Amino acid sequence: MFLLQYTGLNALPFDPASNNDPLHFNGSSGQLVTECPPLENTAENSKKRKRASLPPEGICNMTMDSNSMTMPMSDPNAWATAMNNLGMPPIGMTGQQLMPDFDPNLGMMAGITPLNPMMPGLGMVPAPLSQDVPLVKEIIHCKSCTLFPPNPNLPPPATRDRPPGCKTVFVGGLPENATEQLIMEVFGQCGDITAIRKSKKNFCHIRFAEEFTVDKALFLSGYRVRLGSSTDKKDTGRLHVDFAQARDDLYEWECRQRMLAREERHRRKMEEDRLRPPSPPPIVHYSEHECSQLGDKIKDDGKFPEAVRVLLTWLERGEVNRRNANNFYSMIQSSNGHIRRLTGEKSQHEKEMEEAKDKFKTALSGIVVQ
Question: Where in the numbering of this chain does the RRM domain appear (predicted)?
Fold first, then answer.
């Protein structure tokens, strides 16, 4: 129920309980209801009077309490979703916000997913067809024959398991008067044909260029063939198309599998070579010439690590014998002397380092004291 508040109206000059005349409003201030004396002549009051027009200034002061307006809303989420899709903030009829997480900058709510006009069922995009819907076979008209579809209520014709790499199909139930030209005309619509092997017993084998064309040829299984308009038994037949296992198809499939296996092995080898750590440099074999060069390298500070690695490899290989034992002994002694010298230099540098540290500490403490 609406609550109306009237302000700025004059007092009524009659009793509203016993008078049915229309109210007269004006814009002046005053009380709404006052005490009025009872009217003596009721007959005159019952006469029909002219209706006074309502002045426009009397309407401007009429106010309505909006807090008392209530509208039943069974599902506020549906209302908020509709306003969200229009880019408007979701608010109720009384002004309160239905969704507190509405972002006016984005124009959408985090809690409500906006409707997608491209969804199926909204009229813009048709719903996708179900995969279970059977295909409707129709009459196929060729140049020299006509193909009539089988009864749709019958079960699909049985087929054998598909051999690997199958490109050849078996076609039975051909008319007795069928020729290779007729077979090429009917099954040439499925794809390129590479070979046709026809038998005298109303069947043949057809080899296609691609594997996917075999599925198109199987679609013709169950069709009735009629040559021209003849009704002779020799000019009619019922096709039966099935997979055929041919040596050529199997050989090509095996060759393709071997090629794929070689490519896979090459790819794995390239990956292993890429991830393999680098190999150490090769070690030369022992000879008198290499032995003399190795003795000079041991005495050189820059080539000593490489020379010691070669010497250890020769010792592990068992290159030592009676004839070159003296050479190996001299190289070992040279290496030992070089290592001793390096050890002495290391200890000397460490001693100098300790002295330098002590000198630095003394100088630093003197600076701190000053």
Answer: 167-246
* H or E, element range at 166: none
Cβ atoms of residues 264 and 255 within 8 Å: no
Residues 169, 213: Cα–Cα separation, whole Å: 10
More confident call, 341 vs 73 = 341
More confident residue, 46 or 211: 211
Alpha helices, H only, the chain: 42-46, 76-85, 180-187, 213-218, 247-275, 288-299, 304-317, 325-369
pLDDT band at 143 (very low <50, low <70, confident <90, very high): confident
Contact 186, 142 (CB under 8 A): yes
Q: Is the dihedral of CA 26, 32, 36, 39 positive or negative?
A: positive
Measure the CA dihedral 191/197/199/204, to 10°.
-30
In the structure encoding, which two tokens stand for residue 156, read together?
């699909």
Q: Strand pairing partners for 207?
A: 168, 195
The two tokens of residue 79 are: 């209302």
The tokens for 137 are 């076979």
DSSP 44-99: HHHS--PPPPPPGGGTTTEEE-GGG-----S-HHHHHHHHHHTT---B-TTS-BS-
Block residue for tokens 């075999």: 214
Residues in the chain: 370
Residue 80 CB partners (closer than 8 Å, separation 6+): 90, 98, 99, 109, 112
**Of the candidates 164, 182, 290, 286, the residue with the CA atom closest to the CA atom of residue 228:** 182
Residues 236, 145: contact at Cβ < 8 Å? Answer: no
Average confidence score pLDDT of the chain? 75
Average pLDDT (83-111) is: 57
